[in-house]
Amino acid sequence: xxxxxxxxALTAPEVRAAFFANEAPVALxxxxxxxxxxxxxxxDWTLINSPAALLDAAETVAASTRSHNEFPTxxxxxxxxxxxxxxxxxSCLYRTIDMAGDGQNNEGFGPRxxxxxxAFDDVTVNGLVVNAAEFTSETMLIDFYKREVxxxxxxxxxxxxxxEDYERAMRRKLxxxxxxxxxxxxxxxxxxx
Length: 193
Known about the structure:
This protein is α/β, with parallel strands linked by helices. Helix content is about 40%, strand content about 20%. Strands 3-4-5 form a 3-stranded parallel sheet, with helices on both faces. Strands 1-2 form a two-stranded antiparallel ribbon.
């Protein structure tokens, strides 16, 4: 369901517009994670410099299959894997990792230790909580993500109300990450003196 939601979000008109909102291309990579030794690259670094490149990336994700089932949640290892991927990424103005999940860390070291041990300088980590009530309460998981996962300037959290809401939450998150910041100047006539 997460793959389908990601593919739908990547191909949504709003997200496509955000990808091409300025002239600089976006480098995109996707990996799945679960337990300590369960990280797999789904889409290696791809330069999204045209609508065709974005469609190809979405099709690659759509054609992939889940490689691990019923493994624990090893967030520290997942973040370490992401930091290593960023280490071989193309040069980018902004470096962002998206951490999406429906549970807290329950195997190995957690996010805080990952942030101390891996190269996370100038990296923002945003979160997407999947509120799957059978695993944990929404409030506990949101608090955990805010306290342990979010990192860096402007880091934010989106919440999906179940896996069927994942596409909407991912679309909002991608739009927010990809839309260029609005920078303005204060009119000198209106400055306080």
